[in-house]
Amino acid sequence: MRQLGAQASSPADDAEAARQDPRVRTEWCSRRLLARIHSYTLNRLRKEIEPVSASDFMRFLFVWQKVAPDHKVEGGASVANLLDQLEGFEAPAGSWESEILPARVNDYDPAWLDALCLSGKLSWLRLSPPRMSTDKPTSSSPVRSTPIVLLSRKNVATWSRVFPARENETQLSTNTQTVYDYLKEHGASFFIDIVSGTNLLASMVEAALGELVFRGLITADSFTGLRALLTPLSKTTHREIENRRRRRKAVYSMDEAGRWAIVQPLTQVSGPTGTQASGLLHAGGMHTELVEAVALKLLARYGVVFRKLLDRESIVVPWRDLLRVYRRLEARGEVRGGRFIGGFSGEQFASPDAVHLLRSIRRATPDGSLLSISAADPLNMLGIVVPGSRLSPAASNRVLYRDGVPIAVLEAKEIRFLVDMNPAEQWQARNALLRRRVPPKVRAYLNQAGLTTSPTTVSRLTH
Fold first, then answer.
1. CA distance linking residue 174 with residue 207, whole number of Å
2. Is residue 193 part of a domain?
3. Alpha-carbon span 54 to 344, nearest angstrom
4. How many CB atoms sit inside 10 A of residue 193's CB?
5. Host H or E run for residue 122
6. How confident is the model at residue 269 (pLDDT cuts 50, 70, 90)?
7. Which residues pair with 150 in a beta bridge?
8. What is the pTM of this model?
9. Domain boundary residue among 239, 262, 285?
10. CA atoms in the 13 A half-sphere facing the CB of 418
C-alpha cells in the first residue's frame, strides 16, 4: 500500500516495473480512504497511552537527563553528548560548571569542556539581549549571572534566529568601545595583543571584555576566557579584598583564554511578505527546517514536549509552529502523540524511547530518594510542571525533590519547606538541599569564584 502523501506513479511506470519483476503487484487505494485509515491508526496509538503524574514525569526527567545518581555519566565523550542534549538552553555563566555539568558527570573535569571549544566543535555566547536598555554590568562580576548558551558551532546561526531580536545597543563605555573597535578592525585577537594594541591596562581590557560578554557581542576560543571573567581581580572595589586575591594564584587567567572575537550579527530572515522575526517562523523551505531543528532538540532535551515546557526556554518560537512540526513527525511515525502527562491541556508528543522509559518509571515504586537541583538547571520545573511558586533561576537557589515532588527550596540563602515534615525530616532535607559533592578539579576554581557554599554557611543553615 502506498504511503500517504507519497508521489503517485503513472500506470505506465507500474506496468514497466511489473515487466521487470513479475513479483511486483500493483495495489490501488483511494487517497481519502488511506487518509482515514491513517487517522484511525494515530487515534488508536494515542488511546494506548496511559498518562503519568507530574511527579513521575520529574522522575523520568532525572533519568532522561542523567541527573539521577545511578544514571550519571563519566568521561569527556559524555560531556559532548550532554551538551548536545542541552544545546540552546540558556543558563547563568557561573552555573554551567558549578551546577549543571557536575550534576550529570561524575568527577567532571573542566579540561573536557575546553577541549570541545578549542577543537571548534563547541562555542559559548550570549544570545538573548539585556532585558533593559539601562541594564548595565555592575562592579561585582557581571558575567557570573549573564545567560550563556553552549552550542555546536554549525548551529549558531540556527539558534541565533530563534532568540529574541536585539534592540539597538546602548552606548558602550570609552574603554569598552576601544576594545570593541580593536576587535572589529583586527579580528580575533589574543588578550596580550588587545592590551598592547589599545594601550590600556590589563585590568581595563579585562573589564571591557566582561562588558562585551555581558552585551553578547564577543566570545572566545575556549571556556577558560569565561572562567577568568568569573574571578576578575579588577572587579573588586575593596582594596584589601583585591590584595588578598592577588596573593592567591589564579586558577585560570586571561592569557590562557585563546583569542577573543566579535560575534557576527546575523541578517534577519524575511518571510514572503517581507516581515522579519515572526516571518521566519511561518515561511517555508529554510524556515520550516529551522523550526523543525528546534522541535527535535526540545524533544531530545525533555523526551516529552508540550506547551507548558516552553516556559522554561528562552526561545521565541510559538507553540503553534512547533505543533505543526510535531504533527508532521507523528504522521511519519517518528514521534508519538497522546496524553503522556496528566494535568496539562493541549497536545503532547514524545519520542519512542521516552515512551518506553515513562512506562518503566511509572511501574517503579518510589523509594523516597532526595535530589537537590540548582534553580539554574533545566530541571527546575517548580511552578511549570510541578505545583508551587516559580523559583528564580539563579545558580545559588536550589530546589529539593523527593520522588519527583518538590519539598523544600533554598532562595536568597533562606530555606523554605513546601510540605509538612517532622524535625528529623527537616534536618535530613536541609542536608540534602545544601550539601553537594564538588569535583576535585573544579573545587579550587569555584571557591575562588565564590560559586560554592562555604562550610560556615552550610552549618548555619542546617542548624
1. 11
2. yes
3. 9
4. 15
5. strand 122-125
6. very low
7. 124
8. 0.81
9. 262
10. 21
Pairing of strands 189-190, 259-262: antiparallel
Contacts of residue 428, Cβ cutoff 8 Å, sequence gap at least 6? 370
Residue with the three cell numbers 579585562: 206
With H, G, I as helix, E, B as strand and everything else as coil, classify residue 148: strand
Same domain, 38 and 119: no
> How many domains does the chain contain in total?
3
Vertex 292, ends 286 and 293: CA angle to 5°? 90
**Same domain (yes/no): 104, 136:** yes
Q: State pLDDT tens for residues 43-61.
A: 665 555 688 899 999 999 9
CA distance 286 to 241: 53
Closest CA to 234 of 200, 196, 255, 207: 207
110 and 42 together in one domain: no
Least confident range of 28-32, 222-226, 348-352: 28-32
Closest to 401 in 3D by CA, of 103, 58, 53: 58
**76 shares a domain with 40:** no
Q: In whole angstroms, give the CA distance from residue 449 to residue 213.
A: 17
Q: Angle at the Cα of 165 (from 182 to 300), degrees rounded to 5?
A: 105
Q: Is residue 407 part of a domain?
A: yes
Domain check: are 108 and 237 in the same one?
yes
Q: Are residues 161 and 122 part of one domain?
A: yes
Q: Are residues 197 and 98 in the same domain?
A: yes
- Record the cell numbers describing residue 148, joined without a space: 550563556
Average pLDDT, stretch 286-303?
A: 90
Q: Is residue 413 part of a domain?
A: yes
Q: Among 231, 262, 293, give the residue marking a domain's end.
A: 262
Residue 450 maps to a domain: yes
Residue 377 has pLDDT above 90, yes or no: yes
DSSP-assigned states of every residue in 177-209? HHHHHHHHHH-SEEHHHHHHHHT--HHHHHHHH
* Domain boundaries, position 99: 66-262
Same-domain pairing of 256 and 375 = no
Pairing of strands 370-374, 398-402: antiparallel
pLDDT for the residue numbered 406: 96
Q: Give the start-end residues of each E strand in 193-351.
A: 218-220, 259-262, 304-305, 336-338, 348-350
**Bridge partners, residue 38, by sequence:** none
CA–CA separation, 160 vs 248, rounded Å? 39
- Sheet-wide strand order for 398-402: 370-374, 398-402, 405-411, 414-417
Encode pLDDT of 313-329 as tens digits.
Answer: 999 999 999 999 999 99
Instruction: For residues 98 and 443, give the distance between their C-alpha atoms in angstroms, rounded to a whole number.
Output: 9
The sheet with strand 259-262 has its strands ordered as: 189-190, 259-262, 218-220
